[in-house]
Amino acid sequence: MMEKKHKILVVDDDEFIRIYFKDVFWIHGLEKKYDIQTVPTIEEAEKIIDSPKTRPDTVFLDLAGLMFVDGREVTTVEAGFSLLKRIKDDPKTKDIKVIMYTGYSDKEYSDKAHQLGADGYLVKGENLPKELIKFIEDLK
Q1: Contacts for 110-116 with beta carbons within 8 Å, 24 or more apart?
Q2: pTM for the whole structure
Q3: CATH of residue 58
Q4: Who has greater pLDDT, 89 or 13?
Q5: Conformation bin of residue 71: beta by default, left when phi > 0, alpha when psi is -120 to 50
Q6: Is residue 77 a contact partner of residue 48, using CB atoms and an 8 Å limit?
């Protein structure tokens, strides 16, 4: 019997980051172990998280999330915090591991993320691909 794949959702408006995640796992031969899904917006992430069929085990969430307000694209750190809080406050999703993956290295953002229940806080560009994979392996 085949082992169930660990589902990872990457929420980032930067297409390069979404491609990077998929490529890191492919290059290291882990596509059979992990199912990587990527989306550019908070709204798309919410649909995936809300469905028991597609719900991920781990979410890598860009702090500056892209959302739509009055039909306009808006990028704000509150979008990322809002989704984090929503995941951790809901009994159906609270066990999802949420890692903030962001360009913000400010301690205040890191502290707030941990207060809201983040399972990790990684600053983009500070982790080599192998370190990123080890971090994910250690989460499980």
Answers
A1: 112/81, 113/63, 113/81, 113/84, 116/81, 116/84, 116/85, 116/88
A2: 0.89
A3: 3.40.50.2300
A4: 89
A5: left
A6: no
